[in-house]
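Changelog-adjacent note: as of this version, every example in the card shows the full chain rather than a window. The one below runs 165 residues end to end.
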Amino acid sequence: MAPITDVPTLTPPSRSAVRAYIAIGANLGDAQQQVVTAARDLQRLGAAWVCSSLYRTAPQGASGPDYVNAVVGLDTLLTAPDLLDELQRLELAAGRERPYPNAPRTLDLDIVLYGDARIDSARLQIPHPRMWSRAFVLVPLQEIAPNRVDACHLHALADQAIRRI
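Full-length structure tokens:
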């Protein structure tokens, strides 16, 4: 992976940091190393940082190798659109291609929560619209932010196999 040399653009210092949660997934190449590297790269984007355990899951709505997943929580001064720009830059640096929906990928980074914000634009939806239907997001999120995941949501996903690595 190419070293990250660009410094993220921060909003004015008067802005308070926001706790954002980022879902990380990969199922091509050395998926586990891609997730670990991405988690470390995300650490640069915030003041405080916490990462869940790594989990293995089968692809949903697609074929291909199993995914390695994690969720990172970070306190960031970046706006949600600026954070999305940084995530897409990291995906591109990891060789992410988008040949068709749900294609296998070297790296997938999604903002699942950005504080208590509700964003619904053509480019960005927060909370992530499919997070509540994905054990690979809710299980690691519950590990690092138990107050953000209701037990009912986890129970509803009990049929989705997920294994801590």
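Structural remarks: The first helix runs from residue 31 to 43.
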